[in-house]
Structures are given as C-alpha cells and as structure tokens.
Amino acid sequence: MLVGVDEELLPIGQFARLGRLSVKQLRHYDELGLLRPAFVDAETGYRYYRASQARAALTIGLLRSLDVPLAVVGEVLGRPPQEAAGALSGVRDALEAELARRRRTLAALERVMAGGLPAAEVRLVREPASRVAVVRERASGVADIGRATSLAVARVLEAAYPGDGPVRLVGLFPVDLGEVVEVSAALVLQEGWRVSGARVEVLPGGVFACATHVGPYDQISLTAHAVLAWCAERRHVVRGSLREVYVSDPAVTAPEELVTRLMVCVEEDG
Coiled-coil intervals in this record (predicted)? Predict the structure, then answer.
C-alpha cells in the first residue's frame, strides 16, 4: 500500500471495473471535472477512487447510453429528481425531433419503394419578375430546414401581409446544400401593401423548369430531384435558387394533398 493512501481507495483499474467504465473514460471525465478521483498521487499521477463513487460512474454510463451529452450529464449528477428531469427535458426534445426526422425519411423512402424513383412531369415556363418582401433564416443543416422555413414564412407574413386578399408565398433554397443553409421566404407584394421588418426586393423572372409536387412538404426533395435530373439530362444550366411556390394553405389542407410548384431558373439558349 502507498504511504498516505487511504486503504478504502481503489486504483483506477479496479474502480473502472466496479463502475463499468474504461480507464480512458475515467481519465476523460476527470479532465472534464465530471468525476474527479478521490486522490491523485503527486509523484506518480495515479488516480484513486472510493467505492462510494461507483454510483456516479454507473449513472454516467447509463445517461451516455441514452445519448445524453456530457454537458447535461454534469447538470444531472447529484441533483434531486425534479431538477434532473428539468435538465433532461432538452435532451428529450432533441430526441423527439430526431425521431420525427427519421419518420419523415422513412415515409419518403416508402414513397420511392412504392412508386419508384421520382419522375415528375417537368416543363419550361416563363415567369415575370416580382416585387417581394423577403425574410431570411439560417438552418443548421438539412434536418433544420423545415424549422427555419416555417419561421421565415411566419416573419414575412407578419411583416407584410395585411390580413386579407390572396397570398403568394415563395420559399427560396440553395440548390447545393451545405452544413449551414440559408433559406428565404418571399411574399409577392400587391399594390398598397406596407412592409415593416422585411427587405423589399425584386425576385428575378426568366425561364424556369417547373414541376408540381403533391404531398407533404418534407417529401418535396423527391420532386426537386426529378426537376434537377430533368435539367441535367437536357444540359440546361441551372442558376439561382430552387423555388417552392406554396399553392395550398397548410392550415386547411391535409399534408397528403398539399400542392407546391417547384421551379428552378435555367439559362436561355442563345
């Protein structure tokens, strides 16, 4: 036994087996301040733990198996159940969001399995330029586009829609998606509408490859694939954003019946 070391202390290897963690994990948790050793030998640097710390070690292992981030694990350790539940609520919400995303992905996959790869009817149309109010939001990746788009739509309606009359909303998305995605919601302005809290811009006109998507918004990517594939096969050079023109009102239309026009501008011949 080392001089000055309490006989109740366990060397890190023995404690690792007791707490069902690896030695590497224990060292990492020590560095993070998550689970400090009861004693560290100043000469050798060896770490020693008490058996009473095994509950904390096992709790960390349990929470990590539930995909709880280490930062949240630190908030949970040693807290009363009610406070621990509050700290874990954000993790639950994130897991629910991921589960919803997985379900949407599964639904899209099942649609492909049932109907084959997307082959929407695509045509070329000419669209005039439009004066619009625009609000932009940033999405932290593809999975976050739905949230960012909903927020942008709500903001642009609040900024420019007077509350009566027809509405023409357009979503604008980059053709190539990166880790951070800037999405825009544009509201086509009518005479007399006032704008406060949004930019007023001109949405360029031109020749567009266009297709109609019928179904949930989270499956629009299937029709977008068909439009871009159609352009590539015909060597149409795509420029600008991918546009989603929202024909249906989601407040009164079932997801399976939502109509959205997908448009992407192409360079004109000659």
Answer: none
